[in-house]
Specification:
It is built from 10 helices and 14 strands. Strands 3-2-1-4-7-6 form a 6-stranded mixed sheet, with helices on both faces. The chain has a 5-stranded mixed sheet with strand order 12-11-10-13-14, sandwiched between helices. Strands 5-8-9 form a 3-stranded mixed sheet. Strand 1 and strand 2 form a beta hairpin. The two termini are about 20 Å apart.
């Protein structure tokens, strides 16, 4: 592996890049310039502007990218690898090219397949974190939850991703709290763990989801939840409903930022779930470093 290279996680709304020395992060940067804010013809220029200080210091470094940058709306559309997914399948479908400034570059493909419920499903970016999780914490079997805008519940056997399901928890929370009657006319919001826990416990009672979420409105009007804590209650409803689908009595790795994994840990305590947090950045970097070590020499 080259001593220096650049790892990029480019999603729908956010961009993160890491200057790497082998598998160690030297520097990092993040910007709210995801796919939704970049024109189709501007990906090359945007990336160059965001990482140019590193290029100026080290030359045309290799760049490895994952996430929605490989989607239909991204820089280059990269066909999904299929389940069961291994590192070798991802490598076989990785898109290799050379940037306008001379950096060898690759985009990791993502995965498609049937969910645990038999429905079609896709992921882009999380597959790298899952490979990293397996490498950092070797085991015959992993059950993993990757919370976020579109949370993923995945199962791995011997490092192979054999199934996953998407839950639109983060996006649903955003829609309900910002663009529905439930969030209209609220004062400034404050996080409140007690109110969050009430939301989680309410979600566990089994009400249909569209009825469940209206309780945020009804309980606010009845004075059962404080107006400044409505978002905490909605968050508890959404996360609690999602966690109902995790297996009990099985260790579940929760892969993400410390703030988000702590939220899921709090909710999981009410379900008697065995969850263990792990840093999402660490898993992403480990997974991408493993792939990069086998990708060099394939750029066009």
């Amino acid at each position: 592996m080259d001593k220096y290279w650049i790892a990029v996680d480019w999603g729908t709304t956010n961009f993160r890049a890491f200057l790497m020395h082998r598998d160690v992060i030297i520097a990092q940067t993040s910007h709210s310039c995801g796919l939704l804010s970049v024109a189709k013809t501007q990906f090359s220029e945007t990336l160059y502007n965001l990482i140019s200080p590193w290029l100026d210091a080290h030359g045309a470094l290799p760049v490895v990218m994952a996430g929605m940058v490989g989607s239909q709306q991204g820089w280059h559309e990269v066909s999904y690898a299929t389940l069961p997914a291994t590192a070798s399948k991802l490598l076989a479908r990785a898109y290799a090219f050379t940037t306008s400034w001379g950096s060898p570059a690759w985009i990791i493909p993502g995965i498609s397949g049937k969910s645990q419920f038999g429905l079609p499903d896709v992921m882009r970016g999380e597959e790298v974190q899952l490979l990293g999780l397996s490498a950092l914490h070797p085991a015959d079997e992993h059950v993993a939850l990757l919370p976020g805008t579109h949370s993923k519940h995945a199962h791995l056997r011997n490092g192979e991703i054999d199934t996953f399901s998407t839950f639109m928890s983060g996006e649903v929370f955003s829609l309900l709290s910002e663009h529905s009657l439930l969030g209209r006319g609220l004062p400034e919001q404050h996080e409140d763990n007690d109110t969050f826990n009430v939301g989680v416990s309410t979600a566990l009672e089994g009400a249909p989801f569209s009825h469940l979420i209206f309780s945020a409105r009804a309980r606010r009007l009845a004075g059962e939840i404080t107006p400044s804590c409505v978002h905490s209650y909605i968050s508890g409803l959404v996360i609690g409903y999602e966690l109902r689908h995790l297996p009990q009595h099985t260790l579940t790795w929760v892969v993400g930022s410390p703030t988000l994994t702590a939220r899921y840990q709090l909710a999981a305590s009410q379900l008697d779930l065995n969850v263990l947090p792990v840093n999402g950045n660490s898993c992403f970097i480990k997974g991408l470093a493993l792939l990069f070590s086998q990708l060099q020499g394939t750029a066009q």
